[in-house]
Amino acid sequence: MALDFLSSLFKKKPKEEATPEAVEPVFEEELEERVENREENEQLTQVLERVNEIENDIPRIKISIDTLKKQIQELRDDIDRLDKTIKDVMMLYEVISQEINPFKEQMGQENPLTSEIQDLRKELEDLKLEIAQLKNDIKVLAGYGLDLDSIIYEVLAEV
């Protein structure tokens, strides 16, 4: 075996052997191209699989987004209701605190709402007094036997 090996090294190679060597590089290049093509095909297949997965996930994501939008809108509505309730409570607190507050006179000068409330109270008291006086006047007139209906119609006609 060793002798065959050595003799093969020192002998001139026939032309037939030269052609297979030329074929071998072509064969190697072809193998390399096949390997590259196979790798590209595998990568393409992986990409297509991933695209299919994403396409399948899109409807679920859309449903989730719609659900989240609905929940956000509900939260906005709740916040609006809470805001309105808080404003109402704050107004009530102001009114009550003005009634109980020992520094009411000082606060009245600072808060325009308080002064309006006090003005309205004064007007209400004045109206109550006028109504009481009108009741007394009507009782007196009824005692004299006057026709109250005609008097009321005349007053209303003047107004």
TrEMBL record:
Keywords: Archaeal flagellum, Cell projection, Cilium, Coiled coil, Flagellum. InterPro entries: FlaC_arc, Flagella_assembly_related. It is found in: Archaeal flagellum. GO terms for cellular component: archaeal-type flagellum. Signal peptide: none annotated. It comes from the Archaea. It holds the Pfam family FlaC_arch. Residues 37-144 form a coiled coil. Its main location: other. This is Flagellar protein FlaC. It comes from Thermococcus aciditolerans.
